[in-house]
Amino acid sequence: MSPNPASAPRLSTQTLSQAKPGVVLPKYDRSKVTVGIVHFGPGAFHRGHQACYYDSLLPKDPRWGVCGAELMPNGLMENAAVQDNLYMVAELDAQIRYRVVGSHIEYLKAHGQADKIFARLNDPRVKLVTSTVTEKGYYLDGKGELDLDNPAIKADLEHPTTPGTLIGWITEGLARRKAAGMVPFVPVSCDNMVMNGHKLHGAVLKFAAARGDKDLLAWITDKVTFPSTMVDSITPAATPELVERIERETGLRCEAPVQREAFLQWVVEDALGEGAPDLASVGVQLTKDVAAYEFAKLRLLNGAHSTLAYAGLMRGRDSVGEAMADAKLSHAVELMMREDIVPTLHKTPGLNFNAYISDLLDRFRNPALTHKLIQIASDGSQKLPYRILGSLQDALKGGRPIRRFTISLGAWMRFIERQAKAGIALQDPLNDKLSAIGRECTGDAAADLPKFLAVREVFPADLVENPTFKAAMLAAYANFEAQLD
């Protein structure tokens, strides 16, 4: 029988000994761990990914505890405090494993605890400042550059010592390190953007220039490195059912759990500098060619995910597993990966694209993990330029077919129309603009499509003017399902 939901003890330092056999517990004295990393955006992905690597590192080097900095309050801090900042990661795969992660030492809120976050950023023991704030959290424009006209960025420029954005926090944190005569920390983006380190670097430089501080700009240019990274592990949102399952199977109740597949990969540009944590010793791949891994993951995994999400939702599917069981859809996605995306990628030693695709397809079919398509469908205006349009534009330049790339784009537009006419807000920073377009749609491709293609945050002008692209999009908008054949 399942225990009463209130019968199992809450996860904490004091209750760890009550975990059932088989639960993986921290193998180090947490009282000796110090903070060496500040992480902005400590959501599920970070806690199931980078924090697990740090957790594996702490038994041999206790200097790399994490301070989680919440830019947007989400209740995590409150749940974490009750659990002594411990939480459970459920690895749901052919073999089920439960792991208690203890690498988070504290959580701080940007709104209300700014002084404490700045104290951490100014602590010489802090070497890395990492981030998972999603693509939209960098406030980039259609060219991948910082949008100085965005209200959040403008607010940080007007009040640089009370920032609200990641870019504002990093720039002001670096300014304070410079003023104190300290070596800079290393900002490390862990978000799904091509050359994320390069984009973060450019955004911080542009923000520093807009502050009018030439000395700071020169110091960042000369002294600060921004390594690029690639992160990979399918991490669906936690559910109440997960909480109950963890309690039933581990004997402890965790109100801030993470679920993910067993697969875990982190590729980091070998530019972390002196004094950085020995991430390679716990399985992180350090390389000079992150781009090859980034493009492969963003275009193959994430591109396939977005296609499965929008086309799957419009075909009545609910999860990645259900979309993969849709033979017509999954076959089209596999062909897109093998025939259309691979030619846009560049080779690097150790990266076998065909084997990688086969592994991805197996991961998508993982019956132990339910990944909701609606979760993947969020923030489409921010994701599609990286996941689909980059591959499509490269295919156009190479004179190769683009038909299958338009499946996700046509389905995305139809998804917007459906949600808008049902009165359901999109989980997207362009909700107002996109929903307005969706409400005006008539179903006539010639009338509707130009409205979507005029959204410059998604579709660059030179692409929209390409006759091959326009013709393919007219067909996809009229009937995206026909492109599955």
Automatic annotation (TrEMBL):
| Annotated Mannitol dehydrogenase N-terminal domain residues | 36-279
Whether Oxidoreductase counts among this entry's keywords is: yes
What sequence ranges are listed for the domain Mannitol dehydrogenase C-terminal? 289-478
Keywords for the protein's UniProt record, in alphabetical order: Oxidoreductase
A Pfam entry, by short name: Mannitol_dh
Question: What protein am I looking at?
Answer: Mannitol dehydrogenase family protein
Q: Which organism is it from?
A: Rhizomicrobium electricum
